[in-house]
Design goal:
Distance between the termini: 25 Å
Number of strands: 3
Oligomer: single chain
Shape: globular
Number of domains: 1
Structural class: mainly alpha
Largest sheet: 3 strands, mixed
Length: about 240
C-alpha cells in the first residue's frame, strides 16, 4: 500500500479532483477522533488501515470481479501493483472511495469501507475508471469523459437490478427504465462530487448526451451484474471472450 501522508501536490480550483474529500491527498496526516482514542487508544487509525489492506488483499485473491478487472488491466498494459496503485486512507464521510487520475491510484476509505463486501464494490467500481483511463486515454478534465466513465462504473458495478430496487430507483414493472435511471442518478452524484465547478443542469445535460453509448459499453465485465446471483462468476469465467487470462 502507498502512504500518501506527505508530499502531495496542491490542487488548484480548475483541477479539483475532489481532493477536499481525501485529506491525505492534500498532505494532511490522518488523526483519530477523540472518541476513538478514548475507546481504542491512539492506534485506531493504524488498525483501520491494517484491516482495510487485508480486505483489499483478500479481494484480489478471492473476488471474481476484482480478479477479472485485474486481468483486464494487465492485458491492456496497465497491471496493478498493490503497493503502488491502491491506498487505504481516511476520507470525508461523504465518500467511501475514489480514483485519483493524477497518481493513477485507487483510494479505499478505511474509515468507511470496513467490510470485504464494501471493499470489493469500491475496488471494482474504481477499477472501471482505471481501465477507462488506461484503455481509452480518458481526459478527466473533460466532463464528457468523466460522465461516461461514471455511467459505466454505475452500470457495471453499482446499479444491479436488485440494488436499484432496494434504493427506490427500480421496480419490477419498469425495471429496465428504472435501472437506467439508477445509473444516471449515481453518475450525476459522482460527477458533482468531483467537479464542483459543474452545475447540476450542466451535468445532467452531459450525462444525457453520452448516456446511450456509455450505458451499452459493458467491457470488460461483459454483463450487468445482479446482486445475489452467479453473474460475477459467469463474468470471470467468460473473461477469455475479451482476451483476458
Amino acid at each position: 500500500m502507498v502512504d500518501q501522508s506527505s508530499g502531495s501536490t496542491p490542487v488548484d480550483k480548475e483541477d479539483n479532483w475532489g481532493y477536499d474529500l481525501y485529506p491525505e491527498r492534500r498532505g494532511e496526516a490522518a488523526q483519530a477522533k477523540w472518541w476513538q482514542v478514548a475507546l481504542f487508544g491512539a492506534g485506531q487509525v493504524k488498525t483501520e488501515k491494517t484491516v482495510c489492506e487485508r480486505n483489499v488483499y483478500n479481494c484480489f485473491e478471492n473476488s471474481p470481479l476484482v480478479k477479472l478487472m485485474y486481468s483486464a488491466l494487465k492485458a491492456s498494459g496497465c497491471e496493478i501493483d498493490l503497493r503502488r496503485h491502491i491506498a487505504c486512507e481516511v476520507c470525508d464521510v461523504k465518500v467511501s472511495g475514489g480514483y485519483d487520475p493524477r497518481l493513477n491510484q485507487i483510494v479505499i476509505c478505511q474509515n468507511i469501507a470496513r467490510s470485504k463486501g464494501m471493499v470489493q464494490a469500491i475496488l471494482t467500481h474504481e477499477m472501471i475508471h482505471m481501465f477507462d483511463a488506461c484503455r481509452h486515454e480518458l481526459n478527466f478534465k473533460d466532463v464528457n469523459h468523466l460522465a461516461c466513465t461514471e455511467i459505466r462504473a454505475a452500470n457495471l458495478t453499482h446499479c444491479s437490478f436488485i440494488s436499484a430496487m432496494s434504493q427506490g430507483d427500480a421496480s419490477f414493472f419498469r425495471i429496465q427504465k428504472q435501472h437506467a435511471e439508477c445509473v444516471k442518478n449515481k453518475a450525476l452524484a459522482s460527477v458533482l462530487a468531483v467537479r464542483p465547478d459543474v452545475t447540476k443542469e450542466e451535468a445532467l445535460a452531459v450525462i444525457d448526451k453520452v448516456f446511450l453509448k456509455c450505458y451499452n459499453d459493458l467491457e470488460p465485465i461483459g454483463r450487468r451484474v445482479r446482486r445475489n446471483s452467479a453473474d460475477m462468476f459467469r463474468a470471470y469465467n467468460e473473461r477469455g471472450n475479451y482476451g483476458y487470462e
